[in-house]
Structure of N-acetyltransferase domain-containing protein:
Amino acid sequence: MFPTLNIPGLGVFKIKYKRMNDDNPEEYDEWLEHYKATIIGADKEEVGRVMWRSVNRLLIYRGGLQDELEMSEYGGMELEHIGRKLFDKNGDFLHEDHGTFNAELNLSNFAVIAGDPCHSSGENMYIKPGYRGHGLGSWLLSQIYDHSSFEDISFAFVWPTVLDSEIQSCEQTEERQSSYCRVLKFFQKNGFRKVDQSSGILGYAIYWDDHVSRMLPMESDKVDHLIDPASQAERQNANAMAALARAFGQY
């Protein structure tokens, strides 16, 4: 039975799920599950999506978590980033002194909501512009936690970037940063809180109502200092290209 939502003036929407592993079942790591949920409108138009990867830590040697996340062919750059920024070489959480998330992350299975920081694969959570502002994104997030793929998942992480893939050039930094801040606020509104002070990763304790992060008011979880990761990546690439141009210009 597909989850459905009736929005007066817009119609009835339903969510369709797909297990991405099924496309290449022999190529996925045994600890990795990859899913996509799509919002379908009354005219069968796809109006929104979210993708996620779930990590079963019971199937990973504890000291090998970073290596597995980094080397996985279908894990994506987000798993690699999370492996480096949140966990040490032993698979333990790095930021217990932050206070919001602590040692409970050392052994917990987790899911990563796709934020697609470089817009390379169209995986970022997305709602078509004409359908925004009606709660579809929040509804979609709330529904996927009831999907069977979250049965043994305690936490969800996201490393978000802008929803509008057309905001891509370095010249649009201010516009992009403004869009990025709106995306951060969206995830905060849906219970996510900073996992640390600088990585840009947000976390959500799915079933743990009295978790510290669930008790922290949104306005107390400051995110204004964070910078859109896609902007950072493009600036780094632009600086590298400029440095190469200067170097070759000397010869």
In short: The beta strands are 4-7, 11-19, 32-40, 46-55, 110-113, 126-127, 155-158, 193-194, 202-205. The chain has one domain: 4-249.
